Predict the structure.
Amino acid sequence: MSAEWVTAIGGIGIGAGTAIAGLFTYRRGQKQVQELKKKEIISDIVLPLKLEYNSSKEMVIAKQILDYEWYELKSFENLDDRLQYKLENGRKFITPELLHITLRDHRTIRVESVLERQIRSSFDYLLEFFSRLEFLISLELLTREEIYKLFSYYVSRANNNLGVRNYVRLYEFPLYGKLADGLNSNSSLETVPKLT
């Protein structure tokens, strides 16, 4: 073999080695950038959302009802007759099983009760919050699993409630099943007991 061939092969080897080292350095740099972005997402987006989720006054009623804490209707003397409640020991409560009545289509039976409006407003806020979580998933800033680890309790409760699922569909909340399969505004309405 001539010296020129040895020089050429050596040059190719050194060039390939440099390219491989460059790729490893690039990949290491990319991983560091991704880790830094993830930390920024957590501090700038996730932590404020978690704080809002845990302390929001707007979500309190919805969370109490979904939490099976039976929201007591004590401060409302003149309740709308259509508002269904559970009576126990002379006290009136709304329960998760009765949400399909309160979260009904207002075009079928008007919503006139102040209490019903407050309950619906609380669910509106909670579902809009879930919409923001889905948006983070669709932007691929966080995965469904990461979001679910932080917010699964009420996501699961809402997803398992027929009244809430139908409310999402009736009013076309921007939820498309990325957060929970049942919370999907593109699905058809499910059968609920008839309102009287």
Summary: The chain has six helices and three strands. The CA atoms of residues 9 and 15 lie 10 Å apart. Residues 3-55 form the longest helix (53 residues). Strands lie at 71-72, 86-88, 91-94.
